[in-house]
Specification:
The chain is mainly α. The protein is 82% helix and 0% strand.
């Protein structure tokens, strides 16, 4: 009350939560334009703009806004805005540049966290658990801490996000049943609090699990729901990955024309978003589709491109997958050397 700038920031945050991005952007631009003072209010306005861009899959744009927010926060002496900026930069740089891009920001955030800030402490621990770029091998401890803090703070949207990270870790450990249970719990919470954007991502990842299990009917149902939620909320990263998973289903069913259509759609969206990790995967997938169609020269071109991309990012798992696919291709061509 009495602070017009803070009021505008609060209204913009409400617009953002209800997916009125254009209205939110107009409010936030008035608080963070080049002629506005470099104070904490401007830093938080830039952070909110960055979060909206990140949610929509505009990762390069989000990185630039978070970089600006960090610079302004340092000048303004806002420790909380600096911490928040570092956490968000870890997320988008990890997506754009690989986990090495997240490391320094997580270390910086760790030194700035304040004990009484339950929200940021929860966000930090769950974000670090999802990235784990330092090889600390204590992701589960991070998750337990982060989820507990989210509940203590009463932020169910954040708690659901922590459950999603826990589900992803369960998948990496081969605990598919646990992962699906956690995804189900997360999406139920997200539905209850109106987090359609978060739910889109959760449904997409659950759909991916069903694809990997060969349960194509269930997978398609989840992925189509993810697309509807993502399109309604502007969460276009989830939409792009859902299309890629639908491509995998079509490929598995032998419908190569649909597989190519979905893959092209996913690639176009990921290229626009600057989703490097997604483009790595879709490049290899296009090689697999070409291989299945008997287009061996095209398959080799796509798979070799995927191998180069994975090597450049230091993604050992992806590199191994591309090498294995190239080996199968050579065997199919009768090249045993």
């Amino acid at each position: 009350e009495g602070d017009e700038g803070a009021r505008e920031l609060g209204l913009a945050a409400l617009d953002w939560l209800e997916y009125r991005y254009e209205t939110a952007e107009e409010r936030l631009e008035s608080l963070s334009g080049p002629d506005t003072p470099n104070d904490a209010l401007k830093a938080f306005a830039l952070l909110t703009r960055g979060e909206a861009a990140q949610l929509q899959g505009k990762y390069a744009r989000a990185r630039d806004l978070f970089d600006q927010a960090l610079s302004v926060a340092k000048e303004a002496g806002s420790r909380r805005a600096q911490t928040w900026s570092h956490i968000r930069l870890a997320g988008v740089r990890g997506r754009l540049e690989g986990m090495a891009g997240a490391r320094d920001h997580l270390l910086a955030a760790d030194t700035l966290l304040e004990q009484g800030d339950l929200y940021l402490r929860s966000l930090f621990h769950c974000s670090r658990a999802g990235a784990d770029p330092l090889g600390r091998m204590d992701a589960l401890e991070d998750l337990e801490t982060g989820a507990g803090l989210a509940l203590e703070a009463g932020v169910r949207r954040l708690y659901a996000g922590c459950l999603g990270v826990q589900a992803s870790l369960a998948l990496r450990s081969g605990n598919t049943g646990d992962a699906l249970d956690l995804f189900h719990e997360a999406q139920e919470i997200q539905a209850s609090v109106g987090d359609r954007a978060g739910r889109a991502g959760t449904l997409q990842r659950a759909g991916y699990v069903f694809v990997s299990l060969g349960s194509y009917g269930l997978a398609q149902s989840y992925l189509e729901q993810a697309i509807r939620e993502g399109e309604a909320s502007g969460s276009f990263s989830a939409v792009a990955w859902a299309y890629m998973n639908l491509s995998t289903i079509s490929w598995g069913l032998g419908d190569l024309a649909s597989a190519r259509t979905y893959a092209d759609r996913a690639e176009a969206m990921m290229r626009e978003q600057g989703d490097v990790a997604g483009l790595d995967v879709i490049t290899g997938q296009k090689g697999d589709i070409a291989f299945a169609a008997g287009n061996f020269s095209g398959a080799r071109e796509w798979l070799e491109a995927a191998l180069i991309r994975y090597r450049e990012r230091g993604a050992a798992g992806g590199e191994f997958g591309a090498q294995s696919a190239l080996m199968r291709l050579s065997l199919a061509q009768g090249d045993l050397e």
